[in-house]
Amino acid sequence: MATGGSEAEGALLLPEHEVGDPAGAAPGNASVLGAVFNVSTSVVGAGIMSIPAAMRVLGVAPALALIVGVALLANVAVDFMLRYTRGTPSYAALMGGSFGRAGAKLLNVFIAFNCVGTLTVYLIIIGDVMSGPVGSGEAHAGVLPEWFGPHWWTGRDAVLVAAAVILLPLVLQKHVDSLRYTSAVSILLAAVFMLITMGIAVYTVFTGTAKMPRMLPDFSTLASPFELFTAVPVIVVAFTFHFNVHPIRAELSKTSDMKSAVRISLVLCAAIYAAVGFFGFLLFGDATMPDVLANFDRSSGSGVPQALNDAARLSYALHLVLVFPLLHYSLRVNVDELLFPGRRPLATDTRRFVALTAVLMAVLYVLAIAIPSIWTVFRYSGSTFAVCISLIFPGAIVLRDVHGIAKRKDKALAAMMITLAVITSSIAIASNVMSSIKGEVKGQPRREVWRGRRGDPEPVSMEDDIPLSQHVCRGDAELIGMEDGIPLSRRVHRGYPELIGMEDAIPPLSLSHDIFVAPTPLS
After folding, report:
1. What angle do CA 232, 183, 125 make, to 5 degrees?
2. Integer Cα distance of 443 and 426 in angstroms
3. Is the CB of residue 292 less than 8 Å from the CB of residue 49?
4. Judgement on whether residues 464 and 437 belong to the same structural domain of the protein
5. Band of residue 438 on the pLDDT scale cut at 50, 70, 90
6. Is 21 helix (H, G, I), strand (E, B) or coil?
7. Rounded to the nearest 10 degrees, how much is the dihedral formed by the CA atoms of 482, 484, 486, 487?
8. Which SS3 state, helix, strand or coil, does residue 489 take?
9. Which of 108, 253, 368, 403 has the most CB atoms at less than 10 Å from its CB?
């Protein structure tokens, strides 16, 4: 049976040392407001960027219901964790108390992988914002190429190297308490992003350019109804913060205030998610990308000054820069415990601290380069690691009930949480795998596109493996090139130098592989 001071911490515990923050954070003197900021910072991360895309898949009403439902389940899970916290300083020590050292180690591994996935998403989004997304098949430029044009230093690789260098002073902080001010600023920036998005959406409503959001899912765009379940992990990831509950609780002057801090934070974060999801979907409709920040470029079509679009993108990119070190702190201590169990606290060993930080940053950089889309990370990480951390493990602690304090309704609720988590995650994983297999084997030829001539929406068949730079025009079969910076509505037909318009209603999934039928130029 594990004890509080001997097991691995989900976020901050180190083995065989006195109970408390192993990295040397200040003892309990924090206020409820400070705890709200820290919990909210742990919650509102990169997940918010995929909420509009999840709303595109589910429709507005189911997505809002899912946000509320997952927030309620997160509150129940944290309540279970706090009730079973009797002298244990960490989530992993809690697991160790119920399932022994193997349970604590398993949680450490899951949290490490979850943190790696989330931090990789942070870097991907920063790359999307500054240099533009890759692998989406759509021509969305980043801030730097829009401002300065294409150069080697505006490319994704260079931008991510610069981001890693800028992040180093923050990730090298040895005490989590040192990040309290950046946490407050990060929440402010998230609110700024939300307000800018709302403002732009309201403007488009009055100018008539808003995309009317669907209240229910559009099954005609889905290969299978089970694809709806792929949006569930995205919301689960957005509410996964459980590994930071105990460290934040330990810094409170009254640990009993943690429940109130968590509830306030969940209400605040659910409101932010709902607002960003709805107004983002209202802005971009079915063209909403997995990383909605990529939609805020010169081709957004919102009609507002580009400076406002850039402000929306940059505010949230800076928010992620400030949130990054808090999550990296948890990752570093987890990995240190897994690789160097029984060693002295990481904060007291500068060489080990710096070496581990450098290696982790290098790994995250490589993953951010190799994985182009945040949806890829969310749909797999959310349906495995995140769902176990946030729902399955807290429920298992209650069912194990080593202290004999669980009531019948507690065990029933815990069993329901685990059942829902297992069913939805299994369906989501199966749907993701099948979608990937079909995409690779069949080339996804089921997409349709419309004629390039405005006012003629007749669909034509096409193959899905035509590269973006090689679009075939019927009537002039030779391949035509294009500049990467030309918006999708401004393709130039060889032999007809006039700009060819196209319908705005083209489904986003087909935009990367269009066959144009436009033998006659627009007058």
Report:
1. 50
2. 25
3. yes
4. no
5. low
6. coil
7. 120
8. coil
9. 108
Together in a domain, 438 and 464 = no
CA distance 500 to 116: 44
Looking at the structure, tell me whether residues 217 and 289 fall in a common domain: yes
- For tokens 């003197």, name the residue: 29
DSSP 282-320: HHHGGG--SSGGGGSSTTS---S-HHHHHHHHHHHHHHH
State both tokens at 497. 């130098």
184 shares its domain with 276: yes
> Are 51 and 155 contained in the same domain?
yes
Question: Would you say the C-alpha torsion 371, 425, 43, 509 has a positive or negative sign?
Answer: positive
Question: Three-state SS string across 153-196, please?
Answer: HHCHHHHHHHHHHHHHHHHCCCCHHHHHHHHHHHHHHHHHHHHH
In-domain check, residue 27: no
Last residue of a domain, one of 442, 458, 484: 442
Burial of 503 (0-12, 13-18, 19+ CB in 10 A): middle
- CA-based nearest residue to 40, from 326, 334, 378: 326
State which of 409, 427, 442 marks the end of a domain: 442
Q: Are residues 438 and 453 in the same domain?
A: no
Which pLDDT tens digit goes with each residue over 356-411?
A: 988 998 888 888 888 766 666 666 766 788 888 888 999 999 998 888 888 888 89
pLDDT per residue as tens digits for the range 22-49: 444 445 566 778 788 788 877 876 667 7
Three-state DSSP class for 478? strand
Q: How far is CA 401 from CA 90, 100, 413, in A?
A: 17, 13, 13
Assigned domain for 276 exists = yes
Residue 61 Cα distances to 66, 82, 153, 215, angstroms: 9, 32, 43, 5
Cβ neighbours of residue 465 under 8 Å, at least 6 residues apart? Answer: 443, 513
**Which is higher by pLDDT, 165 or 444?**
165
Output the domain CATH number for residue 223: 1.20.1740.10
- Cα distances (Å, whole numbers) of residue 489 to 300, 307, 452, 502: 12, 22, 9, 6
Do 277 and 214 share a structural domain? yes
Q: Give me the amino acid identity at 394.
A: P
The helix, strand and coil proportions of the chain, stated in percent and rounded to the nearest 5, come to 65, 5, 30
User: At 182, which amino acid appears?
Assistant: T
| Structure tokens belonging to residue 368 | 């951010």
pLDDT tens for each residue of 300-330: 555 567 777 778 788 888 888 888 888 888 8
Provide the number of structural domains found in the chain. 2
Is 516 domain-assigned?
Answer: no
Residue type, 519: P
> CA 320 to CA 196: how far, in whole Å?
17
Number of helices (H), then strands (E), belonging to the chain: the values are: 16, 6
The pair of three-digit structure tokens given for residue 129, joined into one six-digit string: 């914002």
